[in-house]
């Protein structure tokens, strides 16, 4: 079984957060990995719902804050809805993913997990005024 470390970094390469998931098959698509990551972070939130969500993409009705999102009230989040949002954000260049030392560009691209891979997620921030 394989393991993968999901890590968020700034565009300058500064680590923001990371967690590891073990017991995975040797190969998974980028889509499966994104959905796995979102399911894990939502499960952690839903175990102790608060008015703050630290995840890959913004939940519905949430405001963006530094390193997270503020919910109107503590609540559980639907991981499948979040995963769909994350897939659309990837396709729309809302963030990019580095698998080891290379950028992956297709949701259906398979990634070899047998090497103890780090998946780095870098969110892209729109420039003010454009």
Give a short synopsis of this structure.
This protein has 130 residues and is of the alpha+beta class.
Show the helix and strand layout.
Layout: E1 2-9, E2 15-24, E3 27-29, H1 30-47, E4 52-53, E5 62-65, E6 68-71, H2 79-91, E7 95-99, E8 102-104, E9 110-112, E10 118-123
Parallel strand pairs: 1-10
Antiparallel strand pairs: 1-2, 3-9, 4-6, 5-6, 7-8, 7-10
Structure overview:
This protein has 130 residues and is of the alpha+beta class. The protein is 24% helix and 37% strand. It has helices at 30-47, 79-91, and strands at residues 2-9, 15-24, 27-29, 52-53, 62-65, 68-71, 95-99, 102-104, 110-112, 118-123. A 5-stranded mixed beta sheet has the order 2-1-10-7-8, covered by helices on one side. Strand 7 (95-99) and strand 8 form a beta hairpin. Helix 1 (30-47) crosses helix 2 (79-91). The chain is globular. It starts with a strand and ends in a 7-residue tail after the last strand. The mean pLDDT is 91.
Just name the CATH architecture of the domain at 2-45 and 80-123: Roll
Average pLDDT, rounded to a whole number, is: 91
CATH class bucket of the domain at 2-45 and 80-123: Alpha Beta
**In one word, what is the shape?**
globular
Keywords for this structure?
130 residues; Ubiquitin-like (UB roll); five-stranded mixed beta sheet; three-stranded antiparallel beta sheet; 2 helices; globular
């Amino acid at each position: 079984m394989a393991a993968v470390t999901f890590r968020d970094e700034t565009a300058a390469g500064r680590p923001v957060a990371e967690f590891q998931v073990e017991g995975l098959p040797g190969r998974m698509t980028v889509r499966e990995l994104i959905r796995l990551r979102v399911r894990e972070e939502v499960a952690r939130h839903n175990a102790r719902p608060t008015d703050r969500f630290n995840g890959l993409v913004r939940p519905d009705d949430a405001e963006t804050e530094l390193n997270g999102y503020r919910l109107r009230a503590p609540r559980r989040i639907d991981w499948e809805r979040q995963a769909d949002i994350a897939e659309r954000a990837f396709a729309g260049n809302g963030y990019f993913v580095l698998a080891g030392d290379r950028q992956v560009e297709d949701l259906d691209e398979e990634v070899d997990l047998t090497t103890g891979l780090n998946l780095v997620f870098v969110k892209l921030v729109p420039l003010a005024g454009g």
